[in-house]
UniProtKB/TrEMBL annotation:
This is Probable GTP-binding protein EngB. The gene is yihA. Belongs to the TRAFAC class TrmE-Era-EngA-EngB-Septin-like GTPase superfamily. EngB GTPase family. Keywords: Cell cycle, Cell division, GTP-binding, Magnesium, Metal-binding, Nucleotide-binding, Septation. The keyword Transmembrane does not apply. InterPro entries: G_ENGB_dom, GTP-bd, GTP-bd_ribosome_bio_YsxC, P-loop_NTPase, Small_GTP-bd. It comes from Novosphingobium organovorum.
Length: 222
């Protein structure tokens, strides 16, 4: 059994929602703006789904896979490079926005940069009334790290519901993926705001993308 076979038995499928999400994401998805601070946030006139994760967890690749674009979200090999909230409009007329949050866990970043990140993310999470759900990305090869647990705690304190998304599932064996999945689920149960389902994905191979895309659409309608 490979990782995709394992995934096939884990993901919940809502075929109607999957098809609706496919049609929506095959239409207009456009970059709106970047916000280095709260004063530059997009107008709170549409539901928002935010994406967060450690630097190099595959966040940009996942955003590209979800939207069916090659480069709607920039990828970078430099951890901690993006320190802004990036907003993307989905649908025409506008249905909701995707928000790419700056990556965390960058060991070489100056203290001032790390503190700026904390303030921006914390204030956005606590004060954004249109934020419907956050997706917390975790690398399947490493599982939940202490910095991920810290982010989960921040989300819990902000009372922001979040889904945990395992990325790069094609990079490890199915047996290892099963262990990581179980450990991640166990960790999620310790957190009040964590959604009780773990999404397993591979941006490169495309599996898990349809289900996650449908989940994003469903969450935007909450």
């Amino acid at each position: 059994m490979d990782a995709q076979d394992y995934l096939g038995g884990r993901e919940e499928r809502d075929e109607a929602l999957i098809e609706s999400a496919r049609k929506l994401f095959s239409g207009p998805v456009t970059f709106l703006k970047s916000a280095p601070s709260l004063q530059f946030l997009a107008d709170a006139d549409a539901p928002e789904i935010a994406f967060c994760g450690r630097s190099n967890v595959g966040k940009s690749s996942l955003l590209n896979a979800l939207t069916g674009r090659r480069s709607i979200a920039r990828t970078s090999v430099t951890p901690g490079r993006t320190q802004e909230l990036n907003f993307f409009d989905v649908g025409e007329p506008l249905q909701f926005r995707l928000v790419d949050m700056p990556g965390y866990g960058f060991a070489k970043a100056p203290v001032a940069v790390v503190e700026k990140w904390r303030r921006l993310v914390r204030d956005y999470l606590r004060g954004r009334v249109v934020l419907k759900r956050t997706l917390l990305l975790v690398d399947s090869r490493h599982g939940v790290k202490p910095v991920d647990a810290e982010m989960m705690k921040m989300l819990d304190e902000a009372a922001v519901g979040y889904r945990i998304v395992l990325t790069k599932a094609d990079k490890i064996k199915a047996s290892e993926l099963e262990k990581v999945h179980a450990a991640t689920l166990l960790e999620a149960r310790k957190h009040s705001a964590a959604y009780p389902q773990i999404h397993v994905t591979s941006s490169e191979k495309g599996f898990g993308i349809e289900e996650l895309r449908a989940a994003v659409l469903g969450d935007s309608r909450l």
